[in-house]
Amino acid sequence: xxxATFLTLILSAAALQGQTDYxxxxxxxxxxxxxxxxxxxxxxxxxVGGTMGVLAGPDGILMVDANFVQMxxxxxxxxxxxxxxxxxxxxxxxxxxxxxxxxxxxxxxxAVIMARDELRFRLAHPAPAANGTxxxxxxxxALPLVTYRGQVTFHMNGEDAEAIPILAAHTDGDTLVRFxxxxxxxxxxxxxxxxxxxxxxxxxxxxxxxxxxxGNTIGMAGPKTKIIPGHGEIVDRAGLTAHRxxxxxxxxKIAPLVQQGKTVEDVIAAKPTAEFDxxxxxxxxxxxxxxxxxYTELKASK
Length: 302
Known about the structure:
- By secondary structure, the chain is α/β, with parallel strands linked by helices.
- The protein is 35% helix and 21% strand.
- Strands 1, 2, 3, 4, 5, 6, 7 and 8 form an eight-stranded mixed sheet that branches. Strands 9-10-11-12-13 form a five-stranded mixed sheet.
- Helix 6 runs antiparallel to helix 7 (237-259) and helix 7 crosses helix 10.
């Protein structure tokens, strides 16, 4: 499949951002420790795509996520500014194009792409768009070369970085990446501090799996752990716990309405997120989506 067809898939993931001029988007690098860096794509309107991580050192570079396809070359250049060491591994936290789009550019730069079995399958066999348009498979070089089902540990640069599968949460191919010596956890999009959660039902996500994944992450975090979400500001364990508790509270408002036979429009009108809207960034554009996702799962299990 030609790169042009893959662009269609990636651009559909950027729909919420409108028409982005990628020539004006740059990579911001934030040094978080002696050998760990957070990367963000920033344009005139703010963040573009998902957050990325780089573990650098004499053993080479381990990367987490790869932003949009349009940012591939800029991402490779930004990594080389951090270190001249070879880019050895790229971990994808989930299938969405704002986290996997740069895969091909990084593979060409020498990275071995790694991800869950489910993620590779969905890149190769994408779900149709909401309007039924068939998805465009990723180019061969953009597909993970190595896949896994259980935990994988990278012993690099004084770290024991852990890629830990999170089952059926944001999608069915999520991975949490933990850097214990740096006390950093990257969650991908099963935790976002920007907006309400996004349970991608079409790609195998679930409310149950998201809650379990958040609970597991809380359990492995210490009081000073830096938790880097797929989108939004870094939080600590207390912030992550508050996020999980918010989801539980909203679920518990929606569940009895589902039991009463209310329609999804009835539930939206009941405003089950109202008490949280003022403190959730982009609540106005993400609350209805989240309510619909929770309603769909609870109704299916009724």
